[in-house]
Amino acid sequence: MAAELMQQGLNWLTLGCIYALIAVGFSLLFGVLKVIHFSHGDVSLVAPFVALAALQGWSASASGMSAIGLLVACAIAVVATGILGVVLDWLVIRRFRDAPAMMALVATVALGIALRESVGHIFPNGHNPQPFPRLIDANFNVTEGFNLPAFNVLVIGSSIAVVVLLFLLLQHTPLGVRIRAVSQDREAARLMAISPSSVFRATFFITSAIGGLGGLFYASYAGVTRFDFGIQAGLIGFSAAVVGGLGSMPGAIIGSLLIAGLDTIVQATLPDGASYRLVFAFLLVILVLVFRPAGLFGSVAVEKV
Amino acid sequence: MSGHAVLRGEGLTIRFGGLVAMDGVDFVLQAGEILGVIGPNGAGKSTLFNLITGLYQPTAGKVFLNDRPLNGLPAHRIVQMGISRTFQSSRLFTDLSVLDNVIIGMHCRTQSGVFDAMLRPSKARGELRQAAAKAGELLRSVSAGLYDQRGRAASELAQADRRRLEIARALAAEPKVLLLDEPSSGMDDRDTDALIADVRAIIARRPELSIMIIEHDMRLVAELPHRVMVIEYGRKIAEGSFADIRNMPRVQEAYLGRKATAHA
Amino acid sequence: MRPTFSDITIVIALELIGAILLRFFLLADDWRIVGGILLLFCAGFAVMQFRSDWESRIGDAFNRGTRLAVGLAILLVLLFPLALNGNTYALHLLIVSQLYAVLAIALNFQLGSANIPNFATGASYGIGAYVSALLAIHFNVNFWLALPAAAVAATAFGFLLGVPSMRTRESYLALVTIAFGVVIHQLLNNFDWTGGPNGLVGIPAPSLFGHSFASPIVIGGIKLPSQANFYYLSAVLVGIAIISAQRLHGSRIGLAWNALRADELAARCQGINVIWYKVLAFAVDAFLAAFAGTIYAFYISFISPDNFTFLVSVTIMTMVIVGGMDNIFGVIVGAFLLTMLPEKLRAFSDYRILFFGIVVILFLMIRPEGLFPQRLRRYGGSE
Fold first, then answer.
1. C117: nearest CA partner in chain A
2. Using a CB-CB distance cutoff of 8 angstroms, which residues of chain C are in contact with residue A115?
3. What residue spans define the domains of chain C?
4. Tell me, what's the pLDDT at B264?
5. B235 and B112 share a domain?
6. ipTM metric
7. Confidence at C31, pLDDT banded by 50, 70, 90
8. b/e per residue, A202-233, with b = 16+ CB within 10 A?
9. What is the 3-state secondary structure (H, E, C) of B12-51?
10. Is the domain of B114 the same as that of B235?
11. Contact (CB<8Å) C353/A283
C-alpha cells in the first residue's frame, strides 16, 4: 500500500514536472506578449519528431542506437524547437502584437493546426504514432516493491534545474531584466532603449526550448509520439498556466502539479480513467475560472478608464 | 439652480491593494448645477467618476442619486437611473456609424428584447427607427456638422467632433446627471471655445440637467462651473467658486501654482 | 425607392451568374475547371478591391431591388436541384454546405457581432444531433418534435457555456469554450448510452405529410433523388437562420453586441447589460447549431463523436473569418467555399486541415475583415 502510494506520488511528480515545463512557457509568453500563444504546445511537441529524425540520421551513419546518440539527438531537438519558436514569431505572431487579442488568439490556434499538420506531412508516415525511446532505462531499487526508475529521476531533476535556471535568468541577468521590463511596460522599455523585438526573440527561444524539453519527456513518458499530441499537451499546459494565473511562474508550476495530481488520481481510481483525463482537468479549469477569473495567483487587471 | 441635491457622495473611499486612491470624499451636486472637479494628474478625479458610475465599487462610503443609494448597482443600472458619462480618452464605438453610437446611447430607454426582434420584427424595427429619428434630432441639436456626418464611421471623425459625439451619446440616455471627463483634452483654443458654447447650448435646453466636469483647462473652469472642487491625493482639499479657490494658498500649491497663474 | 432598370439588370445578372458558376463548380470533375472558376471568383474580388464604386453600385442595386433579389434567389434555390442532372454527390455537398452556413451564421453572432471567442460551436452542434437522435431511436420521437427538443437542450448548454463568460474574457474565455468542447467530445466518446466511439446508428428518416424523406421527390414526371428532401429542408433552415440573423442585427440587440465588441467598458456605460448580452450570444449560437445538428443526424442517419470535434469548431470559425465577420452574406459564402473547396480538390484532400490553418492565418494577416467586410447600418432614407 505504501509502495503503491509512493509509486503514484512519483508518477504525479513526474507528470507535474512535464506539464510544468510546457506551462511555464505559456505563462512567460503571456507575460511578455500579453497575448496567449495557443500553439506553444504544438511547438513543444515538434521536439520529439526532430529527435527521432536526428536519431534516424545518426543510426544510419553509426551502427545501432547509443546513449550518446540519444543525448545528441535530444540536444538538437531542444535547440531546433527553440529556433522554431523564434521563426514562428517572426513569420506570424509578431504581426498580431498590436492587433486585438481575439485575432492573435485565433491566429495562434490556426498556427497550431498548421504546425501539427505540417509535422504529420513532413515526417515519414507522420500521421501514425511513432515509438519514442525511454531516455534512460535504468532502475533504482529503493525498497521492496518500490522501484525508482532513472527516467523519473531525470525528469524531476532536470525540470527543477530548468526552473531554477529560468528563475536565475529572469532575476539576475541583464536579459532577464529586459524581459521583465518589456513584460511590465513595453513602451517604457522601448524608451529605455530596450528593443522589444530582441526580447521577444529571446523569450520565444527560451520558452520554446524549455517546451521542447517538456515535449521530449512527454513523448518519452508515453513511449510514443503523435503529430496531434501537441493539442493535448498544449491544452494541459495552457490549463495549468491558467489555473495558476497567466504570467505567474509559481502559478504555472502549482497549476501543473494540481492538474497532474488530478490526472493521477483519476487514472488510479476510475476504471477507464485515462479517457477521462482531459474532462477532469478541464472541469478544474472551469471551476477555478468561475471563482477566480484570473487564476489562483493571477491578479485581476483593473482596466484603466 | 433649483437647489435640491441630485447627486451626493459621502465619505467615498477606495483602496487598490495598499494604495488609497480616494479617501473620504464628500460632495453634493445640485439640480441644474455645473460642478467643476480639478486637481493634479493622478489625484483621483477619474476615480471619482468611476465610483459614481459603478465601474468601481467603493471600499467605504456611499453615493446617492436623489437620495437613492447607488452602492452595489452594476454600471448599466446606474446609467438607467440617470447618470451618463464621457471618457477622458474618447471611447466611441469606432467601427459603427455616428448615428449608431447615439442610438446605442439610448439603449436603456428602449425596450425590445430577443423575442420582439425575432417574432415581432415590426415592433422592434419601429422602435429602432424612432430611436434613429430621435438620435438624429439630438445630433442636430448638439452640432449641425456632426449631424451631416451621421452616416460615417465614428473612427473618421475629427478630434473635436469625437468629443461632441461622446457628449451626444451620453445625452441620449436622457440623464439627470452628466459626467464629463476632461472634454477639452487634446483640443486647441478654438475647439475649446466651441466646446464651451456647446455645453452652454446643452444646458440652455435642459435646465434640470446637472453636470460634473473634470478639467485641466482653466479657461473652461473659469467659464462654465458654478462651483469647483479641488482633489489632491484622493482627498478634497477645497471647494467653492473658482474666484475663491484660485486664491487659496493650498490650492495654488497643489495645482494652480504651475498652470493657472500662467493662464490668468 | 424603386429599383431602376439597371438595378434590375445587375441583380438578375449577378444572381444568375452566381448560380451557373456554382452549378459548374459542383459538377466539375476536372480540377482545371475548379481552378478556373476559383480564378474567376478571385478576379471578381480583385476588381471589387480596386473599383469600390462598382462595389457600392452593386450594393445599391441590391438595396433598392431587395424584393426582386430575394424572390429570384428563392426561385433559384428551388430550381437548382433540377440543374444537377440527378448528381447525388453534388446535392450532398450542397446540404453539408448549407448546414455549415447555418453553423457559421450561428457563430457569427458571437465572433462577428460581439467578438466573443467560442470554440464550442461544434459541441452545440453535436448536442443537437445527439439529443434528437437519442429521442428518435429510443423514444420514437419524430423529427419535427425532436428538432425543438434538441434546440432547447442545446440552448441550455449555451447558457451554461455562457456562465463563465460573465467573469472571464479573451484568452481565458477561449480556453473555457475549448474545454467545454473537448469535455463534450470526450463524454460522447466514453458514455455507453451515446454509443461510445461508435456513435448512434439507424436514425430514422423524417417524413412530412406521409412523404418519407428517404424516398425520391416526384413532381409532374420530374424525379429528384431522395437527397433533395434534405436539400430543401436545410435550405429552409438557412432561410430561417438568415432571417433571425438579420432581425437581430437590425435590432437593439445587434447594436448592443456591436457596442460590446467595440468597447466593452463603454458599452456598460451606455446602460448595456454586458453579461446578459454575452450569455445571450452563446444561447443563440447553440440554438441555431442544434437545428443544424438535428438535420445532419437525420440526414446521414449515423453520428459519432468524431463529427463534432474541436476541429469542426475551428472549421466553422474559419468560415466566419474568411467570409467576413458580421456580414451574413459573407459568412454564407465562406461556409460554401470552405466546405466545397476541399471536396473538389480531392487530390489535395490530405492537406485539408493544413489548408484551413494556413487560410485562417493568411486571412488574419492580409485581410482580417474577411472577403465581405461588415457594413454600416442604414436607416430609411438617412442618406
1. A102
2. 357
3. 1-85, 86-366
4. 43
5. no
6. 0.89
7. confident
8. bbbbbbbbbbbbbbbbbbbbbeebbbbbbbbb
9. EEEEECCEEEEEEEEEEEECCCEEEEECCCCCCHHHHHHH
10. no
11. no
A305 inside 8 A of chain B by CB: yes
- Domain stops at, among B112, B135, B156: B156
Tell me: the pLDDT tens digits for C364-375?
888 888 888 887
Q: B3: pLDDT confidence band, cut at 50, 70 and 90? A: low
- Put simply, the answer to whether C268 touches B103 (Cβ < 8 Å) is no
Task: Tell me what the pLDDT averaged over chain A comes to.
Answer: 86
B123-132, C46-55, C146-155: which has the highest mean pLDDT? C146-155
Tell whether the model's pLDDT for residue B29 goes beyond 90.
yes
Domains in chain A, ordered, with CATH? 2-291 (1.10.3470)
Please check whether residue C170 touches A, CB under 8 A: yes
Question: Mean of the pLDDT values across residues C4-22?
Answer: 87
- Cβ of A305 within 8 Å of Cβ of B55? The answer is yes
Q: Which residue has the cell 435646453?
A: B205
State the angle between helix axes of A229-244 and A196-222 in degrees (0 to 180), rounded to the nearest 10.
120
Nearest-CB residue to C358 (from A114, A235, A238):
A114
B124 and B85 co-located in one domain = no
Q: Which of C235, C232, C260, C231 is nearest to C326 (CA)?
A: C260
What residue type is assigned to position B208 of the chain? Answer: E
Name the DSSP class of A267.
H
Q: Which residues of A touch C261 (CB under 8 A)?
A: none
Q: Which residue of B has its CA nearest to C242?
A: B118
Contact A305 B16 (CB under 8 A): no
Cα nearest neighbour of C377 on chain B: B97
- The residue out of B122, B156, B190 marking a domain boundary is B156
- Which residue range is the domain that position B148 belongs to? 93-156
Residue C205 is predicted with a pLDDT of 84
Position A245 confidence tier, pLDDT thresholds 50, 70, 90: confident
For C86-366, CATH number? 1.10.3470
- Pick the closest to residue B179 from B74, B60, B34, B67 (CA basis): B34
Judged by a CB distance cut-off of 8 A, whether residue A301 touches chain B is: no
Q: Which cell numbers in the block locate residue B52?
A: 459614481
**What's the burial of A275, exposed, middle or buried (CB within 10 Å: 0-12/13-18/19+)?**
middle
Mean pLDDT of A152-156: 90
pLDDT of residue B52 exceeding 90, the answer is yes
CA distance C359 to C314: 12
pLDDT tens digits, A104-148: 888 898 999 999 999 988 888 888 888 888 888 777 776 666 778
Please report the pLDDT score of residue A102 as a whole number. Answer: 78
Give the closest-approach CA distance of C30 to chain B in angstroms.
43
Residues 134 through 193 of chain A touching chain C, CB cutoff 8 Å: none
> Per the structure, how many domains does chain B have?
2
One domain for residues B102 and B64: no
Kindly list the residues from chain B whose CB atom is less than 8 angstroms away from the CB atom of residue A305.
46, 49-50, 55, 87-88
Distance from CA of B53 to the nearest CA of A (A): 12
- Smallest CA–CA distance, residue A275 to chain C, in Å, is 7
